[in-house]
Amino acid sequence: MARKVTYLAGIEGAERELTVEVHDLDADPWPLGAKLKYVGTEVPRLDGVAKVTGVAQFTQDVNLDKMAYAGEVIAPHAHAVVKSIDASAARAMPGVLAVRTSEGKRVTYAGSSVAAVCATSREVLADALAAIRVEYDVQPHAVTVEEALKDEVRVSPRRSNDTAGGRGGAMRRGNPDAALESAEVKVEAEYRTAIQTHSALEPHGSVVSIDKEGNATVWASTQATSGFAGGRLLRALELPRGRVRVITEHMGGGFGAKFGAQSWDVLCAEFAKETGRPVKYLLTRRSEHLVGGNRPDSIQKLTLGGTKDGTFTVLAGETWGTSGNGRGGAGCANFMGYTLPSVRMLQHTVSTFTARGAAFRAPRHPQGFFALEGAIDAFAAKAGLDPLAVRMKNDPHPVRQIQWKIGAERIGWKRNHRKVAGSDKGPVKRGVGCAAGRWSQAGRGNWSVDLTIDSSGHVIVMNGAQDLGTGTRTLLAICVAEELGIPPATIDVRVGDTRYPPGPGSGGSTTAPSLGPAAREAGLRAREALAALLGVEWKTDSEKVTLEDGVFKGPGGKKATFQEACGLIPDEGLRVRGTRRRNYDGYNRETAGCQFAEVAVDTETGVITVERVVAVHDAGRLVNTMASRSQVNGGVIQGISFALYEERQLDENLGDMVNPTFDTYKIMGMADCPQIDVVLTTVVSGFNSIGMMGLGEPATVPTAGAIASAVYNAIGVQVRQLPMTPARVLAALEGRQQ
Amino acid sequence: MTQGSAPAAAETRRKVHMQLLVNGEAQEVAFLPHKTLLEVLREDMQLTGTKHGCELGECGTCTVLMDGEPMLSCLVLGIECDGVEIETVEGMATGAGPHPLQTWFADLGAAQCGYCTPGFLMTAKSILERDPNPSREDLVEELSGNLCRCTGYLKIYEAIEAAAKDMREGSQ
Ligand code: FES
Ligand code: FES
User: CB within 8 A of A402, min separation 6: which ones?
Assistant: First the structure.
């Protein structure tokens, strides 16, 4: 039951006709240039008022009657066996409801839980935790990649650190050996990036409450409301999934580290069951940095070869990184985006005694593109070619070809790119640079969005997925609004609750393109239902009832406003469901993006100031350009922070993190915020009825690479290690870099 | 039920009773003497608009105004607030409607996840009360204690400047 639809997709200047098989129930895809009223406009978020008045409730804000508090004693050692625990003083404290200890536990990272307390107040909890005495038998450890790879340290939580260390990923295409041999221009360099912690302002955690009938409600700061209650949590509650309600009304940032229930959430559930009280546990800031997830670090050795005219022929490389004691995850996307006929790449995830990494906004990408773009700059310099021209020459993406030109124009490449790098007079030198980005996310899954309308015209749209601040609520409203011809602000959207149809976890920029088409279809079904009611009323075929500019029209000049049409809805109300189906064959799997940066480097102090970033991005058809702009701003700012400030420092002797606070682990603040010029190129992706793609991740991919490229242009030497701290800049200037 | 009642009684005895002046209203509050103002507001007065981000004085999400000055409420004890006028985000809107800062923050999208928003709003309010036309440099200086991870930094500047303009024009 499918039909064929032919329509125009892609981007103006590189458009293409697509013929796709569309399910009978699917809406016709909107073509390039479709006249839409709400989709593609600037719509303030629906929950904006709740957020500026303090009404918006986050998990951290949930306070229930008789609520108890949980907390943990965490190990200060990277590797140790718990010899003994004396919790007698804690147990005797008034207000302590339950205590757990883990004698004999083998600790494999600092921050690991060894004892836990549930108490009637946060004060009693703090006293009880402080009163627990733990004795450790400290074991040898390696907490950094370099330590772990040393021969004499043959210890690893996964016992896998043999010569190459940990699990690797290998990839090979073309004929890299011959291509390396015959390359006319060849550059070889090592690039390094540091471990970055997610640092969401709301910590991880939950509140678990079990009612008198034995049903549980869990408020969680999660990116996956519908999938939160998994095996361990359900086992702790001894309940089937259907009796556990999960609520994420608002959440204060996740960035990839907050999916299913984690050990602390399970602990909350266990204590709730044991004490018969609601229990709350949100991690401390120190634990957030220690165990709340992180982006693995990287050491990337790359060799890029090509011809004298600037055509790449080969990329070879080997990388190492640690994702803590987890398996895999420390790879680098350093071989993507450009045409590279021959590739030889070996990537190692080295196991260390640290808490495991987690998906972090565009996993593998910012670090990979930092290195690859650095190698491209070095290649262009050696070949005596303009680095932008070299990028464009090797870029196969039709959209990015357009974007490079837009970005170059905006940053003033011709004027501002120093022909001779580092040639500015005086101690403060300026330069511009650029880098590419990529992502690939057209959405997936057969998610459903429910919609009800009553006779007063009140429209409620429901899906269980959460709004991380990305604007999911508003997005659903816009997609429905377009079909119903009513303003998005009049639509009541309810998300973040397992009482509604399940929604996707928000990872990989999936939420918008996964739910948008379902919401559009819900709107379409509602419109059809209203047309059917009008058809009966007007004694005509419902197919003859149309909706134009928010007014229903029928034969013989019949007219009804949306409100009037809703007046025909019977007491039972109107309820429809929109469901997303398979993706179609689209225009281009990859979303394109590129960024340009302008920096000033003080060569006496080593301080880099990012003055301007031009960010040109494609995310398919944009539904809410205000939210899209915010996503790009956020991606750029996290990218600058990654490039210049963030570094989780581990003490090799103690195995602990030495900077687990915002005073010592720097994230970018207001003072360092440059001018950001966001250019959004609309590309009808063709993969779904709206033509959407995800945008959360791609916006942060090119930033570090673009800044490093600009720094190189400013001072004439590459700073090959992130963050580019003043000390590293000075070392590079003095030729002291490894 | 019996399980919790003995310690709860013990805690009640230790509580101090104080009058706090919050958002223009004098209220009788009982709380433990070592609680921070942040805890008193959030746990004993149910004013959870003021956020808890680090409890270490590093993130700015807990910013409130004390006699008009922005303060990190996680670093102030509740018992220090005798006779102090405290303002929180819940008190920003008046009978006449939302504060211009609230309107512009919402309209321009200065709040993404919104966790940092109340802190930024309170700091911005104190800035505009002292200086109706602050420069970008002034804003940078005064807001540097407020972190945002999702970022609205640019939108935050724009929203404050738009609100300042509204307020200047409104008061003429
Ligand atoms: S909670 Fe007070 S500064 Fe972070
Ligand atoms: S909007 Fe999320 S921390 Fe600022």
Answer: A11, A13, A14, A681
Distance CA A710, CA A587 (A): 32
For A641-697, write each residue's pLDDT tens digit.
999 999 999 998 889 999 999 999 999 999 999 999 999 999 999 999 999 999 999
pLDDT tens-place string over residues A349-384: 888 999 999 999 999 999 999 999 999 999 999 999
Residues B98 and A149: their CA atoms lie apart, in Å, by 59
CATH code that applies to domain A444-582: 3.30.365.10
Task: Please choose, from the candidates A643, A220, A288, the residue with its C-alpha nearest in 3D space to the C-alpha of residue A468.
Answer: A220
Query: Could A661 and B53 be called an inter-chain contact, meaning their C-beta atoms sit closer than 8 Å?
Result: no
The correct answer on CATH 3.40.50.2300 for the domain covering A1-34+397-442+584-738 is: no
Q: Are residues A117 and A128 in contact, defined by beta-carbon separation less than 8 angstroms?
A: yes
Q: Which fold has domain A59-139+204-282?
A: Aldehyde Oxidoreductase; domain 4 (3.30.365)
**Stated pTM of the model:** 0.95
Structure tokens at A466: 């959460």
Detail the DSSP E strand segments found in A590-674. 591-602, 608-618
| CA A675 – CA B145 distance, rounded (Å) | 20
| Fold assignment, B100-169 | DNA polymerase; domain 1 (1.10.150)
Residue A706's CB: how many other CB atoms inside 10 A?
35
Residue A64 CB-half CA count within 13 A:
20
Cα gap A387→A403, rounded to integer Å: 15
Interface-testing mutation among B36, B54, B149, B155, with chain A (most A C-beta atoms within 10 A): B149
**CB neighbours (10 Å) of residue A66?**
13
Q: How far is the CA of A390 from the centre of ligand 1 (A)?
A: 47
| ipTM score | 0.95
Q: Which CATH number does A144-197+292-382 carry?
A: 3.30.365.10
Residue spans in chain B of domains classed CATH 3.10.20.30: 5-91
Task: Using the atom order of ligand 1, give the atom closest to the CA of residue B145.
Answer: 3
* Sign, Cα dihedral of A420, A421, A425, A429: positive
Best probe of the A interface among B113, B116, B117, B120, by most A CBs < 10 A, is B113
pLDDT tens sequence across B136-155: 999 999 999 999 999 879 99
| For residues A444-471, average pLDDT | 96
From chain B, pick out residues whose CB is under 8 angstroms from the CB of A277.
Answer: 4
Q: What is the reported pLDDT for B160? A: 97
Superfamily covering domain B5-91: Beta-grasp domain (3.10.20.30)
Q: What band does A159 get if pLDDT is binned at 50, 70 and 90? A: very low
Alpha helices in B27-81 (DSSP H): 37-39
Identify which of A192, A172, A174 has the alpha carbon closest to the alpha carbon of residue A306: A174
Chain A residue numbers touching B35 (CB-CB < 8 A): 123
In eight-state DSSP terms, residue A399 is H
Residue A95 CB–ligand 2 contact under 6 Å: no
Residue A24 burial (CB count, 10 A): 7
What does the DSSP 8-state code read for residue A303?
A: E
Tally Cβ neighbours within 10 Å of residue A326. 19
Dump pLDDT digits (tens) for B27-53. 999 998 989 999 999 999 999 999 999
Distance CA A110, CA A206 (A): 22
The nearest CA of chain A is from the CA of B54 a distance in Å of 5
